[in-house]
Design goal:
The chain is mainly alpha-helical. Helix content is about 75%, strand content about 0%. The protein contains 22 helices and no strands. The longest helix has about 55 residues. It is globular, with a radius of gyration of 27 Å.
């Protein structure tokens, strides 16, 4: 009887112990996710709070604190700022219209068709992203300068006067942006996501009588909407703070945008930190509205394309294979060939941009190679870029996984917070972070490599998290549930199931984080 009672007691208490164990596990996960949420909220909201308080601080540098609304008054009354706002908006819209349309088409060709050499073409687009915006801009100046550009000189027969093309114009800025940076990075992001599209959907559409273009418009693009909208939003928000190209090509003709206006305002004899900070708050509010629109467009629809029955059969182009390959080859030549050739050519010129008699020299190379600071700068750049890429992949993929794959109560708020760094111009975000790191509790970090890594990880958070989210939304939960049913724990499932499927996206994020850190000007 005692043995029977003991067995009954064990049967009744064992489930209770198992329930307690599960409860403790859930509580531990919730605590860890809350710590992650608190950390993201702190590093994102603290600089924004510093910017907000600075917008009401009207005293000059070195004077006692004095509060007022002069900065806000300047935002809504100065004609120069209003013109800069209009130029920023129009440049961003036109730039994204051309870049996203071309990127969707090219990424579709590389990921979904049998175009010859598609892996080589994809690698070239990756290579194009390695070129800094400054180098690309200077290269196109050598080609399209109205008076000294080689193409303009060739078209007018090397006579005096200006040629038909002018790089110092609205169209010139759009051209350099699209062909220099926007198109390449969007193709890099979209191609791995497009490759995860189950071709069974497209085959079913064609069997039903739809054309290739009809299938793309009615099946492919709706299923790829999360990543397309994310790329559009990220690119548009990033274009609002574009600086180098506008500074070089727009300033000579009096075309100012938000970033160049902020730069000139900060580097006046008496910097106007209040006006700059007030403008940053206005941009944050406008960009926040765009974020809400993006979340409304994507909504809570299902976009799963990778399941246990995943099929990937490329679309056959037939007679269009060779013309398509020629088109991609021409695009690669414009995007990477022209900047590479003319950037190297510029390093051997005695006077950059002027093809005078006997224009070539090795003096610039000799000066650079003899500079002791160059090797030190290269070493610091590599350490900074590698550290940023590693931390970005680890932290940002974890944040995206919490948002998409867990039932954490604050995941929507966490998702919203990850967008916020892109709503702040880079130079203003740096000012907010500088103020934060000058606080007594963080002052030991000021001026160190970890400070730069933290700043770069924060600035790259929207891009990495949103792209990672879009790819996780494509993965069916059935794949992970099958692993759990087979006895695998979370780590085993993530390592053997999820990680192989998202590894192309992680590589893209790591490469873009590395290059962005290496050529970043605003934060560094």
């Amino acid at each position: 009887a005692r043995r029977k009672d003991a067995r009954k007691a064990s049967v009744t208490t064992a489930p209770g112990l198992a329930g307690i164990s599960r409860l403790r596990k859930i509580e531990l996960q919730t605590v860890l996710m809350t710590i992650l949420f608190a950390g993201v909220a702190f590093v994102v909201l603290t600089p924004m709070w510093q910017i907000l308080t600075q917008s009401f601080q009207v005293s000059k540098p070195g004077e006692a604190a004095r509060w007022g609304l002069e900065g806000w008054r300047a935002v809504f009354t100065e004609t120069a700022l209003q013109k800069a706002a209009w130029n920023t908006l129009t440049l961003s819209v036109v730039r994204q219209l051309f870049a996203l349309t071309g990127a969707i088409f090219i990424a579709w060709l590389l990921a979904r068709t049998d175009v010859p050499g598609r892996k080589i073409f994809e690698f070239v687009f990756w290579l194009a992203f390695f070129l800094p915006a400054l180098t690309i801009t200077l290269s196109w100046i050598l080609v399209l300068d109205p008076q000294f550009g080689l193409l303009n000189q060739a078209l007018r027969g090397f006579k005096e006067g200006n040629g038909p093309f002018n790089i110092y114009s609205f169209a010139g800025i759009v051209w350099v942006h699209v062909m220099g940076t926007s198109l390449a990075v969007q193709v890099m992001i979209l191609t791995p996501a497009f490759r995860n599209m189950n071709s069974a959907f497209e085959e079913a559409s064609r069997i039903s009588g739809a054309s290739t273009m009809g299938t793309m418009v009615r099946i492919f693009i709706p299923l790829m909407m999360p990543v397309i909208v994310s790329v559009l939003m990220l690119s548009f928000l990033r274009s609002l703070e574009a600086f180098e190209i506008e500074q070089i090509l727009g300033t000579p003709i009096g075309l100012y945008v938000f970033s160049t206006w902020i730069y000139d305002t900060l580097y006046q004899h008496i910097p106007r930190y209040d006006a700059v900070s007030a403008l940053a708050i206005v941009m944050i509010l406008l960009c926040t509205g765009l974020i809400f629109i993006q979340r409304r467009v994507v909504g809570k629809r299902q976009y799963t394309t990778v399941t246990g029955q995943f099929v990937s059969n490329p679309i056959r182009l037939g007679k269009w294979r060779i013309p398509t390959a020629v088109f991609l080859g021409l695009m690669c030549f414009i995007i990477i060939g022209v900047p590479m050739v003319f950037s190297v050519m510029g390093t051997f010129m005695k006077l950059f941009g002027f093809f005078i008699q006997d224009p070539w020299t090795l003096k610039q190379w000799e000066t650079a190679l003899k500079d002791r600071l160059l090797a030190r700068a290269i070493g610091n750049t590599i350490v900074l870029a590698v550290s940023t890429a590693i931390v970005a992949v680890l932290i940002h993929s974890l944040i995206a996984y919490v948002i998409v794959r867990t039932r954490y109560a604050a995941r929507s708020a966490l998702d919203f917070l990850t967008w916020m760094p892109f709503t702040i111009p880079g130079i203003i975000l740096s000012l907010g972070l500088l103020t934060m790191f000058l606080q007594p509790q963080f002052r030991p970090l000021y001026g160190t490599m970890p400070t730069l890594v933290i700043a770069l990880v924060i600035s790259g958070m929207p891009f990495a998290v949103q792209i990672m989210k879009s790819n996780l939304m494509q993965l069916s939960k059935d794949l992970e549930e099958a692993s759990f049913v087979s006895g695998g724990n979370w780590f085993h499932t993530y390592r053997r199931v999820v990680l192989p499927l998202i590894s192309p996206t992680l590589v893209v994020i790591a490469v873009i984080s590395f290059i962005s850190a290496a050529r970043n000007i605003s934060q560094v």
